[in-house]
Amino acid sequence: MKVLRCKLAPDIVNVTFNIVPTVEWNVSKTTNLDWFTTHRSTLNKAIDACNNRYAWTAYIESPSSKIHGKEPPAQGKARFEAMLNRDFSLTMPGEIGRVGEEVSPYTREPLGISYPQIDVQALYQAMGKGKEAWADAPLDIRFGVCLEILHRCSQQLFENAHATMHTSGQSFIMAFAGSGANALDRGLEALAYAYKAMQDVPASATWQRRFGSEPEVCLEKQYKPMPVGIGAVICCATFPLWNGYPALMASLATGNPVVMKAHPNATLPVAMLVKTCREVLTEAGFDPNLVTLAADTRKEPVAKALLAHDDTAIVDFTGSPTFGHWIEQHCAHLQVYTETAGCNSVVIESTHNLSAMATAIAQSLCQASAQMCTSVQNIHIPASGIVAEGRQISFDEVAGAIVEAVNQLLAKPEQAAFLCGTLVNDDISATIARLREEGAKAGRVLRDSTPYSHPEFSQARTATPLILEVSQQDKALYSQELFGPISFIIKGRSSEDCLDAASADAAQYGAITSHVYSTDDDFIQRAQKSFNRSGASLACNLINMPINFAAAYSDFHVTGLNPAGTACLTDLAFVTRRFRIVQNKVMQA
C-alpha cells in the first residue's frame, strides 16, 4: 500500500472542499483520485442544472441501436441471460444460505438466480469495520468513488433493462429509461445536493474576540462532517432503483455505509448495483462491505430486522403505503425518507384540445400498467360537462373521449407492449377482478380490463386499463391507491366541487402528482392554491408529453407535505441530516 498525500481539487462551481488541505490516506492505486477529475464536469453540470432547473440528462435515455450500435444491446442481453439459473456472483459477510424466488412476469418462469441470505448481526459487524476509513476520506476521493459507481452503472443499462423487465414487468424501453437513465439521473442529483450541502461549512476558521479588558483571544477552529450511521435502503418491486440510486448516493457520499434491501420479486437489479459498488470500493482501497445486499423471501422478510438494529440510523423506503406508514410510525427515532403513493388525480374544467387532453390522460392510465407512483387514478369531471374547443360537451362525451384514447393507444399489440408492459404479480389481477365487481355495483364499467397478446412473450401476465364511472358518494372505492391499471371517472356537482374533492383527497390520502385542465386562468390559480395548501404539486394543461414524467434536476418529486411520503427527490433536506458537524477549537498563544 502506498501512502498518498491528497490535496484539494480545484474549485467546483465557485465552492471549495470543506476538508483540511493535506490528509494522510492509504490507497491501493491512484485511479480513485482520477475518478473525481474524470467525472467532475458531470458533477459541475448536475449542480448547475439543480441550481437553474433546466432540462438535462447525464445519461442516454434511448436504447436505440442507431445510437449505441448493434453490439451493446446484444451484449447486454447476453450478460443478462448468463446470470440466469445460477448463483449470483456475490458473497456477503454473515452468509447463511442462498435465496431467490424471482419469476419473470413475461415468461412466467423462474429466473433461477440465488443470492446470499445473510445474518443481520454478522452483516452489520462487517459493515462497521471500514466505516471510519470511509468517513475520514477526503471528499474528492469519496465523491470520485460515487461518481465512478454511477458511471459504471450507466455502462450496464442494457443488462439492467433486461433484469428490470423480467423482474418488475416494465417494457424494455421503460426499463432502460425510467429504471435506468432517469433513475441514474436521480442518483446524480442526490450526489450534487450532497456536495452542495457539505460545502456549506468551511474546513477551518480563525476566530478573534476581546472579552472586556482581557487581551484579545484567538481560536483556530476546525469543522468536520461526520456520518450518522448505517443507511438501510428498502427498494420496491416495480421500480427497484428509482429510490435505490439517490438513497445510496445521498448516504454513501456523506460517509455512511449502506445496506440495500431488495424486494424478493426484484432482487437482480439491486444485486447488480451492489456488485458494482463493491468492485469500485475495492479498487479504491476501501472495505467493500460499506455497501451490502440483504436479499430475502416473502415468507422470511428481513426489513424489520434491519430497521431494529442499533446501528441503523437512516431508512429510505419506496413501496406500499401500508409498510411505508408503518415505518413512519415505528421508526421515528431514525431518519426516515419515504415515498409511497396516493390518490393521484385529474380535474377537468375545460380544455382547448379535447383529443390531446384525452390522449395525455389515457397514456398515464396505460403506462407501465399504472404501476407507477405518478400514475393517474382519479379523474374528476363536473356532471354538467365542460367547455372544449369553444363548445359545451357532456360528461359522457368527456369520459368517452378518454376511453377511446385508451383504445387507440392499445390498438396494436406492439404499442400495448411498449406502454403497458406486464403486471408484476397476480395480486393485481385479483384487485382488478374485485374492483370490476364493486365498480359495477356502485356505478358502471366504462371500459373493462382485458389481457392483451404480447407480440414476443405469449405467457406474459398482461392487463389493459379498467375504467369505472362513480360519484363522490363512492369515495370508499377510490380514496386509496389501487395499484395497477384501475381508474375512476368521478362525477362531481360542479368544477369547483371537483377541485375541492380532489385537493381534499390529496391532503387526506396523499398525492404525488395532480393535474388540472382548464382554459380559465382564474380557475387555474384557484387550483394551484388549493392543491398547494394540501401539500401537493400541480401540473396544468399538460399535453404532447408523458404526464407521469418527473424530470431530475427540475421537478421536486414528492413534497413531504402529504401522506404520499416524507422525502423529496431531491432537495437539500434529502441529504443534510445524513451528516452532522463536529468541531475542534484551540487557543492560540
From TrEMBL:
It comes from the Bacteria. Residues 103-531 form the Aldehyde dehydrogenase domain. Keywords: NAD, Oxidoreductase. The keyword Cytoplasm does not apply. InterPro entries: Ald_DH/histidinol_DH, Ald_DH_C, Ald_DH_N, Aldehyde_DH_dom, PaaN_2, Proline_metab_enzyme. Transmembrane segments: none annotated. PANTHER family: DELTA-1-PYRROLINE-5-CARBOXYLATE DEHYDROGENASE 1, ISOFORM A-RELATED, DELTA-1-PYRROLINE-5-CARBOXYLATE DEHYDROGENASE 2, ISOFORM A-RELATED. This is Phenylacetic acid degradation protein PaaN. It comes from Lacimicrobium alkaliphilum.
